[in-house]
């Protein structure tokens, strides 16, 4: 019975994932990431970034970068979207789209954002876009190989025998 449920649940999830990551949903996610960058607070760098995060239930959480005069206190768009989604009860994500104003280059997540994304799994999609809405896509695990994940905390440790 459990095996039947697991197969059935896996099929439902697979179908759901196909439906929420079809071409029109991807384009919607990318469009929302480009819209989100208009809310960026970037008075120091004038480098505006937006993100749109697709949660497993179909909810989309957007975010933008918010700079601070104390530079390390700024927060990136990707982390804003994740924090917003998590604060609303979401823990499973299917995809994130990231947008900036760079004309000829894709925007990719910084190291801190890559670590934050990987906290929620190594197999979900990151759509890194250009200003013309074209994109490259990679899995979170591809963006941060040999990463430190929550599973790392459960690894067997050496004993400190005295």
From TrEMBL:
Q: Which InterPro entries match?
A: APOBEC/CMP_deaminase_Zn-bd (IPR016192), CMP_dCMP_dom (IPR002125), Cyt/Deoxycyt_deaminase (IPR050202), Cyt_deam_tetra (IPR006262), Cytidine_deaminase-like (IPR016193)
Please name the GO terms that the record assigns under molecular function. cytidine deaminase activity; identical protein binding; zinc ion binding
Q: Which reaction does it catalyse?
A: 2'-deoxycytidine + H2O + H(+) = 2'-deoxyuridine + NH4(+); cytidine + H2O + H(+) = uridine + NH4(+)
Give the protein's recorded name.
Cytidine deaminase
Describe the function of this protein.
Answer: This enzyme scavenges exogenous and endogenous cytidine and 2'-deoxycytidine for UMP synthesis.
Q: Which residues bind substrate?
A: 65-71
What's this protein's family per the entry? Answer: Belongs to the cytidine and deoxycytidylate deaminase family.
Question: What's the cofactor?
Answer: Zn(2+)
Q: Name the catalytic site residues.
A: 78 (proton donor)
Q: Which domain of life is it from?
A: Eukaryota
One BP term from GO: nucleobase-containing small molecule metabolic process
Species whose genome carries this gene: Sinanodonta woodiana (Chinese pond mussel)
Query: Does the UniProt entry include the keyword Nucleotide-binding?
Result: no
A Gene Ontology cellular-component term: cytoplasm
Give the EC number(s) under which this enzyme is classified: 3.5.4.5
């Amino acid at each position: 019975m459990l095996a039947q449920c697991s197969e059935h649940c896996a099929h439902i999830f697979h179908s759901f994932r196909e439906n929420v990551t079809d071409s029109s949903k991807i384009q919607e996610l990318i469009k929302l990431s480009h819209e989100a960058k208009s809310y960026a607070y970037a008075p120091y760098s004038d480098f505006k970034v937006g993100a749109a995060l697709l949660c497993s239930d179909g909810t989309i959480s957007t975010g933008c970068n918010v700079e601070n005069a104390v530079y390390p206190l700024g927060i990136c768009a990707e982390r804003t979207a994740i924090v917003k989604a998590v604060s609303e009860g979401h823990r499973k994500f299917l995809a994130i789209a990231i947008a900036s104003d760079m004309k000829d280059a894709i925007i990719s997540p910084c190291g801190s954002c890559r670590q934050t994304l990987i906290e929620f799994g190594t197999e979900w999609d990151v759509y890194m876009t250009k200003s013309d809405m074209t994109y490259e896509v990679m899995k979170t695990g591809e963006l941060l190989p040999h990463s430190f994940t929550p599973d790392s905390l459960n690894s067997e440790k050496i004993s400190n025998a005295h």
